[in-house]
Amino acid sequence: MSTVAAFYPVGTPGQAWGALERAQWLALQQVQRSYAGEVVSKIDALRERFDVSQYGELDYPSGRYPLFAIRSRNWDETLPVMLVTGGVHGYETSGVQGALQFVDQQAQSYAGRCNLLVAPCVSPWGYERIQRWNAEALDPNRSFVANSPAQESAALMALVAPLQGRVLMHIDLHETTDTDETEFRPALAARDGKPFEPGEIPDGFYLVDDTENRQPQFQQAVNAEVAKVTHLAPADERGEIIGSTVVAEGVIEYPLKALGLCASVSGARYTTTTEVYPDSPKATPQQCNDAQVAAVVGALDYALTHN
């Protein structure tokens, strides 16, 4: 476990941020990679095989970012819809690249069996800055709520809204990184004026099920596919992963809708959030992407056979 100082360089300990502190935080965020070069170029390369549409655009003082969705070419209203989302937290690289790799390598094998809708990079501003939050210091993955304050979340909700009741499976691709403990959780505590309480980062892959719609066999099927690619995260000495009770190997649960999490957005029967650990000495960046692809394949195959 990494040890970090309790003090965050923005704000006053014990006081929630106001507009000044948010502006100070924003000034620290620098572009570190290219959404156009690393993401949009790959989406464009898929246009010959899939339908690509722009479903929104982020509008920040630092720039505008088009948001893209990829759909099965021969959309069939009689088939179930399967939703794949990535990059809700922009810094979680394999969520974005894994979604794109899945479309490129695996998606066509599901033609005629289901309708695929993939939003590979929900938060491109965060992708470029390797940042969890958006430009307004909001966490998009706590903002899937009515009248969402986050542009990223509101745009995805609008994309999915016409499909309510028709989505069979939704898998949301994420990572848990060492920087969660060294940067993002301290920032959250500082922003909200709360004390920072150190935690542990699990070494391995795990899933988040929905406490309000438990699907344990679905989660196990996804993990079984992932285990062919990389290792699952063990429980800590308290039988937990990131503070939540482990209910099965590599599985914890959250109340998705109550927390405003992306996996709640579609009302799908089968939902899960993946968590890859890219900082593991036992996993390469490509393995992390492969693990996300394996998770999507496992989720699709289970949903299609248990519809």
UniProtKB/TrEMBL annotation:
Top-level lineage group: Bacteria
GO biological process, one term: proteolysis
Pfam families: DUF2817 (PF10994)
Domain Peptidase M14 stretches: 31-303
GO molecular function: metallocarboxypeptidase activity; zinc ion binding
Active site, renumbered: 275
InterPro entries noted in UniProt: DUF2817, Peptidase_M14
PROSITE patterns noted in UniProt: PEPTIDASE_M14
Membership in a protein family: Belongs to the peptidase M14 family.
Protein known as: Peptidase
